[in-house]
Amino acid sequence: MPTFDYAPAPESRAVVNLQPSYGLFINGEFVDGSGTAFKTINPATEESLAEVAEATTDDVDRAVKAARAAYRGVWGRMSGADRGKYLFRIARIMQERSRELAVLETLDNGKPIKESRDVDVPLAAAHFFYHAGWADKLGYAALGPDPRPLGVVGQVIPWNFPLLMLAWKIAPALACGNTVVLKPAETTPLTALLFAQICQQADLPPGVVNIVTGAGPTGQAIVDHPGIDKIAFTGSTGVGKMIARSIAGTRKRATLELGGKAANIVFDDAPLDQTIEGIVNGIFFNQGQVCCAGSRLLVQESIADDVERRLKRRLATLRVGDPMDKNTDVGAINSRRQLDRITELSAAGEAEGATRWDTDCPLPKNGFWFRPTVFTGVSQSHRIAQEEIFGPVLSVLTFRTPAEAVAKANNTPYGLSAGVWTEKGSRILWMADQLRAGVVWANTFNQFDPTSPFGGYKESGYGREGGRHGLEAYVQTGGVA
Amino acid sequence: MSPHVEVRKTYKLYIGGKFPRSESGRSYAVHAAPSRAGRPGSFLANAAAGSRKDARDAVVAARGAFPTWAGATAYNRGQVLYRVAEVMQGRAAQFADEVAAAEGLTPARARATVEAAIDRWVWYAGWSDKLAQILGGLNPVAGPYFDISAPEPTGVVAVLAPQRSSLLGLVSVVAPVVVSGNTAVVVASQDRPLPAVTLTECLATSDVPGGVVNVITGRTAEIAPWLASHRDVNAIDLAGAAGADGVVWGDLEGAAAENLKRVLRPAGNGAEAVEPDWTATPDLSRMTAFLETKTVWHPKGR
Amino acid sequence: MTVLDTAVDPAAGSTEDPAARARDLLGVSRLTDTSLTRWLHALPGVDQVGAEARAASLGTRSIKTTSKAWAIDLAISMIDLTTLEGADTPGKVRGLATRALTPDPADLTTPSPAAVCVYGDMVPFAREVLGHSGVRIAAVATAFPSGRASMPVKLADTRDAVAAGADEIDMVIDRGAFLAGHYRQVFDEIAAVKAACRRPDGTSARLKVIMETGELVTYDNVRRASWLSMLAGGDFIKTSTGKISPAATLPVTLIMLEAVRDWREVTGQQLGVKPAGGIRTSKDAIKFLVAVNEVAGPEWLDNHWFRFGASSLLNDLILQRQRLAIGAYSGSDYVPDDAPSLY
Q1: Which are the catalytic amino acids of C?
Q2: Is B206 helix (H, G, I), strand (E, B) or coil?
Q3: What's residue C48's pLDDT?
Q4: Do A438 and B292 touch (CB under 8 A)?
């Protein structure tokens, strides 16, 4: 039998001009940090990419003061139309430098270049375009009378979609007239620092966007800073709770976009071939390191064997390896720590009696890798059905009736997203009503758009990002509180 | 003829559509507001001193009532809530007496307050079938998808009712919670609980399903922490933290963080909590605080 | 899904009596519009957006260097080099057949296309040139392209082409009958044409069943027509006549690849797929090969199981082949063209 091996098709990294070290971006310029600089590595190779400054409490204070000054002096009093034009500029420059952003994102994060190229970067630019248009139209957004900015916003973002999460945070904040202090994740700071250069190219007034790099303590310094009016955080539910506790009793506001354990529910009348694609996309997109990943597959028992067989056949065609190869479907896990967590939970799944299957594909020698893995025979009480694994690991459960599917889907403290696959229209609408989740994808999965609000119920956090709803988190209305 | 000896009412809790005494068997004396001159108010009644277990039972009742109430049509919820206002109107004189005694108002001011409370209830009731149209809508995504967002109730909401405004304030915090389909566990004003109990009698006689609104009377500082930390409560309104003895709203918010409750903070600056002027025209904010946005995607194909 | 769960004796894969096999597969005693409808409509639906997204994602595969060279040669070997014009003449057909024997006179390692595809009356002229070269002759039949003729005429058309030496017959289904739900009629026509493909020596011309997917419009229809064609004894399912637009799109081909994949799971029988019409560039052809590889499987990467119905595709594949060979871009002056436009 002939074999159609796809020869390596590596994206060139020449487009990226990596500096040996990066400072903090405060008040429109790069400055040294006061903390201990740390390395950011390529998780696919473990090679060091650059050294990045650590922001201390003092550095964060400088950044907040710069943001406050910019808010008072320029941005908070600028017309919406002018703010919008700056955002349009940023969006355009992101498109112009899209290749560079995509390559850098893949180097620093480990995600396949085809995802950073086709999803992360275009969506990030789209977020700026969308919100640019809102800047002078907030009065029409039904947010309440006289929408006004909050002031200085502290934003802490995760490593799974570094640039996209930055865009989700910065674009609406700026459109509404706030200034920001943003901390990228310590393992993926590089595209945020490139974004700082884009702000410079756009002539964004100094202090409107400040980027401080560091780990947990830097984030805590932002959360605790008295000059911060609002916290926007995306990350784990554990940290989200810490933030909620930290700001309790203050007048700081918060939006939290946290974990999930989404059910992807497949009925016996589903469009099967597209369903298989949806399952694969649901859990293996971005190596499963997605808060809304469809990590619990709920299959109607009558078709469970068929779905399992088709799914495994499909997974065998997934190409795991060099994220810079344009044909790679599944890239590297972002960090050793995350890999350890995935490994530990998968071992627990086996130990608790679920049946483990993986693609048995070869993995690169260096870097952090985990094969696409499927657990069958999983029940609700297994850890792998309860805890967010945040990796390419799918747990398969079965159900018999729609009501049972709903009960299992909702039987979790999370409530971020859910999937429903059936060709029966009225069942989709009924299911969508019953599911306690902020986003319900019917006959599709993992779709995102700047116009579409995203966010969870219950312990998946509060507030929405995107769409008209996302603006609510960045304005105050009515009388002065 | 000998004068009629008044038949006094026993003021009880309202849980799951029933009127139990506190499981603790406790009660506490409720007095009228002190006079202008500062003389202590007269004894009005013994109210049930609700306990943490009463609060627990109320949460169970509220959780049980949630699917049906949230799943009712918005039109139906609006009709049921409007009916509450009708029954309140029929009891206006009783409310006026109780509010006058509780808040130390003149009969005319008390009547005006009751009328405002009834009007407030009607205002909120009318929102039931309009919220989704105002707050929801189609999202024009860049792809072949039908994408729609709509508000949904958050779930079980704990409400600390205002301490001072015993009826207008109470209505102003309870109606916005339940109109969208949430169910509520309400801690009544500690010192002015009697109008709240009378309101439960209106609720019980106006087609509001049992468990949709549950009212606990007693010490706010004793009950509130259990609700703030309760994992099966989805949100908490801290309005009644203002002026409540021994209540630090920040502590309640901190406890609420354990399951990421949606928290509606009390008015005021910094750590202080003040009770707002409830006569001010409301906006949507007390309703939106207890709403989730659900977004549904579906492909558009042939 | 009930269809795939049907246990079937592999021996029933024989197409000697398609109706008997169909009754067995469907588990019915009589093959009727009703029983066929029940069976075809029990196939899983196709979500258009999802199917097109999948096709688009297969289209983003980046095939470079050695893989590209391999794929280009494979694609050339899968072409049914086609001329189907009213203006076709013996000269045009001889030229095309000659081209098939020597696709690139400058590089004799260039593989030959699988077949030339002509109208039935042109078969003898193709045979003159091709002889026993191994390049097959496919003839369109059954009142191609509309299919609007009586059954006796369609069968005569088929027998005539087979008798003239056609190795393969490309028939069209009656789209009107299919869209009207007359599945039994469509089945019977395919089965009858299949019977007409038989030669006196007992061998048969291979039958490609053209569904004219551009007229079926929905992917659900494409899937049902595919299964009906396979059930009735077609050896290949083929997208289009090339006379209707859209013709061979990648999503339509994806649906058909899924059909032959699933058919083999049910019956054990492997059948072929032929997208035809609109595939003009190497880049497009390689996208189809990626789809074959990842959807049906590598077993289909052979011209016995996959064909491109195309006329100008060969020219572009040769251009790209030369580009890889000489390390510089080639031009059309270096590619012989036996089928230039008349106009």
Answers
A1: 170, 238, 274
A2: coil
A3: 98
A4: yes
- 3-class SS of residue A179: strand
pLDDT value, residue C14 = 47
CB contact (8 A) between residue B285 and residue A461: no
Residues C60, A326: C-beta atoms closer than 8 Å: yes
- The amino acid at residue B53 is K
Q: Judge whether C288 and C318 are in contact, CB under 8 Å.
A: no
Q: Do domains A21-258+459-476 and A263-449 have the same CATH topology?
A: no
Pair type for strands B156-160 and B145-153:
unpaired
**Angle (nearest 5°) at CA C259 between C272 and C264:** 70
Its CATH architecture, for the domain A21-258+459-476, is 3-Layer(aba) Sandwich (3.40)
In chain C, beta strands by DSSP E: 79-82, 115-119, 136-140, 168-172, 206-210, 236-238, 272-274, 308-310
The DSSP symbol for A153 reads E
Q: How far apart are alpha carbons B33 and B166 in whole angstroms?
A: 12
Structure tokens that stand for B1 in this block: 């003829």
Contacts of C218 in chain B (CB under 8 A): 302
Residue with tokens 């005319």: B108
Q: Is the dihedral of CA C114, C119, C124, C126 positive or negative?
A: negative
User: What's the topology of domain C13-62+138-328?
Assistant: TIM Barrel (3.20.20)
Identify which of B250, B294, B299 has the shortest CB distance to residue A248: B250
The CA angle C109-C115-C117, to the nearest 5 degrees, is: 140
Q: Can you name the residues that pair with A398 across neighbouring β-strands?
A: A299
pLDDT (0 to 100) of residue A479: 60
Measure the CA–CA gap between C121 and C141, rounded to whole angstroms: 10
Q: What is the pLDDT of residue C15?
A: 56
For chain A, how far is it from start to end, CA to CA, in angstroms?
Answer: 73
| CB < 8 Å to A114, chain C | 60
* Residues A28-82 pLDDT 10s: 999 999 999 999 999 999 999 999 999 999 999 999 999 999 999 999 999 999 9
Dihedral sign of CA atoms B33, B38, B42, B45 in order: positive
From the number of C-beta atoms within 10 Å of its C-beta (0-12, 13-18, 19+), residue C7 rates as exposed
CATH for A263-449 (3.20.20.70, 3.40.309.10, 3.90.1150.10, 3.40.50.10070): 3.40.309.10
Predicted local confidence at residue B36, as pLDDT: 85
Coil/strand/helix, residue A343: helix
Stretches where chain B sits below pLDDT 70 are 1
User: What count of other Cβ atoms lies within 10 Å of the Cβ of residue C132?
Assistant: 6
Nearest-Cα residue of chain C relative to residue A273: C46
- Domains of chain B, earliest start first: 27-31+50-299 (3.40.605.10)
Taking contacts as CB-CB distances below 8 angstroms, the residues of chain C near B146 are none
Chain segment C54-81, per-residue pLDDT in tens: 999 999 999 999 999 999 999 999 999 9
Q: pLDDT of A112-144, one tens digit each?
A: 999 999 999 999 999 999 999 999 999 999 998
pLDDT greater than 70 at residue A481 = no
Q: How far is CA B71 from CA A441, B156, B184, in A?
A: 21, 14, 15
Q: In Å, how far are A49, A217, A323, C102 from A35, measured between CA atoms?
A: 19, 11, 31, 72
Q: Looking at residues C90-94, what average pLDDT do you find?
A: 97
DSSP per-residue string spanning C254-290: HHHHHHHHHHHHHHS---EEE-BSS--SHHHHHHHHH
Residue with tokens 């009735």: C232
The residues spanned by each domain of chain A are: 21-258+459-476, 263-449
A248 Cβ under 8 Å from any chain B Cβ:
yes
Residues, chain C: 343
Q: How far apart (Å, rounded) are the C-alpha atoms in residues A390 and A346?
A: 11
Strand ranges for A115-238 from DSSP E: 148-149, 152-156, 179-183, 209-211, 230-234
